[in-house]
Amino acid sequence: MKIIFTFLLALTTTLTFGQKSIYVKTVDGFLLANQPDKVLPYLEAQLKQHPKNEELLRMLGFHNLQRNNLVNAEKYYREALVVNPKCARCEMNLGNIFALKNDFKTALTYLEKAVKIDAKDAMVWVTRGRLKEMLGDGTGALNDYNTAIELEPANAQHYVQRGRYNLNGGYNSLALADFNKAIALAPTEYEGYYFRSNVYFGQQKYNDALQDVNKAIEIDPKHDELYISRGVIYNSLQNYEKTLANYTKAIELNPNYFLAYLNRSKTYYALENLDASCTDLQTVKRLLKESNINDQELLKEIDGELNDYCDDSKASYYYQRGIANYNLNEYAKAIDLYNLGLKKFPKHVMLSIFKGNALLAIKENENALNTYEEALSNQKTLLAELKEARNLENAGEADAQKAYDATLADIHFGIASSKANLNDFAAALTQINTAIKLKGTVNEGLESYYNLRGNIYLALTNYKLAQTDFSKSIAINKSYAIAYVNRAIAKASLAEKSKISAYSFGGKAVLQPLQVVWGTAKTVKKTMESNLISAIEDCNVAIGMDKNLGFAYYVRGQLKQLLNQKDYCVDLLTAQKLGLQIEPNLLKNCIN
After folding, report:
1. Domains of the chain
2. Which single residue of 37, 275, 333, 542 could bond 325 by disulfide (Cβ 3.0 to 4.6 Å)?
3. Cα–Cα distance measured from residue 149 to residue 94, given in angstroms and rounded to the nearest whole number
4. pTM of full prediction above 0.85
């Protein structure tokens, strides 16, 4: 959670006078009554009656500055300096004004004047420290913060400022000490809790971070940045409903700040709600322009995303939305989107590949096969398509060629899957071998390639090669649970007198990659027992990774049955509850 700050955040503490005058009391009354629009007209009317009143001029400068009326703010502070050339806060706030104009050199000049006029004003030192920090003068910034604390050791705000400096510099222990001190000095002010939550967040102590930001919101619920931070924390806790609620609350409080929209767009994208993500991205771009924020890196990122999945004149608009629906298991909607895209871009390879994947997911194997083969027939356009993709826009020829080969590999993988599901295992083996060769040194997704070839070898009763491929799959991705289950099948099938008696590639249930039944053995030899125990251990590993992997229980239950272990029914019934179809003969001795 990177802290982004501007000089404007310091302004609420820069207007101070010895004793509250009638002007200050009246303005405070307007603000307490939630009538900020009355402040400037009141002060301007009073100034007409008292045109040389320094307090009125400074108040007008301050309240214009808070509203980002920089021209008027500068005018009033300059007039105040005419009345009182020794007004250090006037020089300081002129520095703030020029900092907001991004004229940091002039800003620093004014702040240097402010320090010379009143070297005992801690706020002047803090403000100069903030500017030095922005300009990369870390040593100078730290010295200024330290001076402010020496001048006012009981002022919690100064510890907050130094804590922010330490946090941005990665000095988490020092930052934590400063925020703890700020909280001890001012337990009813929100800033110490807010920034301490940032320290905890960086340490991945999300519950502690949440507790602190909740306290900050309890103290002062009107700050949009608090809800943005809480949204970020909830996002890390994968509570996306509360993530969105907090970003939306931040927008409600401050509809003109881009960061809440930007963060919300990313959450919508992660939740596959691309339309909502696009709406927020368009708002971000507009607000950046209106605020004259020229962050080229951020603008490039936003333009890339708008171009990638928000522009319906691009093929990526359709396949990104198709992928989103695919990830939500809305396969029919995904296919409809791919078809819409293919009407506009009839020979688009990527659209065809993704359509094939969706067809394969609903086991329309013939249609999937035809779609993959169509994609393969149009491969001449693939390289150009890939070069248009955002992740390859700056890629060299070698990287583009590698992506091209990997995408061709995916097509052959799809064809192999389709043919295997259609029981054409010899052709499937040829296709998956081609896919693995094309993958080359690209390991991303390669575990699924070896897993598929292992399954094909199982179907061809070549259990040793199957086991070897499943082991390769696991070596590439040790968290690939399904490969452990499949290796268990291969191990068990190699055991004497436990040959597969029934095998179906592509089970009837969605979560069932295949259906397999072993013949039962009246006696279990030591070599057979060793294989089966090793196979059960593989299933145990898979279940340890994913307690809801019904296929692992399905296989482990049968292995236990082969070993005459009495609890085999527990596994088979668990698999059934998790959506797998269990052969009736396996359950005949189990009480449902």
Report:
1. 1-152 (1.25.40.10), 154-221 (1.25.40.10), 481-592 (no CATH)
2. 333
3. 23
4. no
